[in-house]
Amino acid sequence: MPYLSPALNVMIAAARKASRALIRDFGEVENLQVSLKGPADFVSNADRRTERILIEELSRTRPGYGFLVEESGTIEGPDKTHRFIIDPLDGTTNFLHSIPHFAISIALEREGQIVSALVYNPISDDLFIAEKGHGAYLNDKRLRVAARKQMRDALSATGIPFMGKDGHERFLGELAAVMAVSPGVRRFGSAALDLAWLAAGRYDAYWERGLQIWDIAAGVLLVREAGGVVSDLDGGARMLESGNILAANEALHPQFLKLIRQAEAR
Q1: Which of 31, 111, 126, 180 is the 20 to 30 Å CA partner of 75?
Q2: Residue 1: predicted pLDDT
């Protein structure tokens, strides 16, 4: 059984409560696909509603903690040593198109360190959790990153720059470099779940640029507690600040890092 700190128990309860409204909203957005107006406004409301429930629940049980949240930004609390970092709906585009691959992501930061993490897909009921120093779990199953050691065996995940973002040519160069030496690359549209799936051994590596801290804060701890290595794309530890991330097991991380840096240099 996983070790559950009081704080992580609170995070789980808040995520499950918020997920009930999100599941209802997901059912509604499927019906809205055929409407002329489309579901974009509805999804924005679902995102904000989920965020509000999470903040209310976490504030009730942990008064004084601060928040860093996708929609509301920074919410200061009197306790300057703790804050929750929240993405209420990671995979919004999937949600918008009735694709059941999205998640609530919550990380607890204590004195600048992520100490508890949760990534929850309410549709599949997959609950990924981690405590610093106590491992990572999917429901009650202990997680370990995959043990593959060769690029030719490694299935990786990534994110693609979309409309309005730069870096398309650089991404295509990185993608071509990885595709030339590996059996496959996946793009499923949720950074939080990409990292959680890597922690579960479903992927062997994951890289992406231009993310926000709430996209990856929980996932970083999940991967590390599952025995993986996480860095920025320069090999440093500033992924939460830069939004550029590479995660893999110990054998594959240096190989992917070298490949991506070589592609960038071309």
Answers
A1: 126
A2: 73
Nearest to 249 by CA among 228, 232, 263, 235: 228
Predicted confidence at residue 41, as pLDDT, reads: 60
Report how far apart, in Å, the C-alpha atoms of 81 and of each of 51, 55, 77, 109, 199 are. Answer: 22, 17, 9, 8, 27
CATH 3.30.540.10 fits 6-142, yes or no: yes
Q: pLDDT: is 46 or 158 the higher one?
A: 158
- CATH number at 151-265: 3.40.190.80
- What is the residue extent of each domain of the chain? 6-142, 151-265
CB 244: neighbour CB atoms within 10 A?
19
Q: Which two tokens stand for residue 109?
A: 């930061």
Q: How many CA atoms lie within 13 A of 215 on its CB side?
A: 20
Max Cα distance, the chain (Å) = 52
Q: What is the pLDDT of residues 180-238, one digit of tens each?
A: 999 999 999 999 999 999 999 999 999 999 999 999 999 999 999 999 999 999 999 99
Give how far Cα 154 sits from Cα of 151, 199, 201, Å. 5, 14, 11
pLDDT digits (tens, 9 = 90+) for 179-189: 999 999 999 99
pLDDT over threshold 60, residue 34: no
Torsion sign, CA atoms 90, 96, 97, 100: positive
- Edge to edge, the sheet with strand 135-138 lists 73-75, 65-69, 79-90, 103-110, 113-121, 126-131, 135-138, 141-142
Would you say 191 and 83 are in contact if contact means Cβ atoms under 8 Å apart?
no
CA 135 from centre of chain:
17
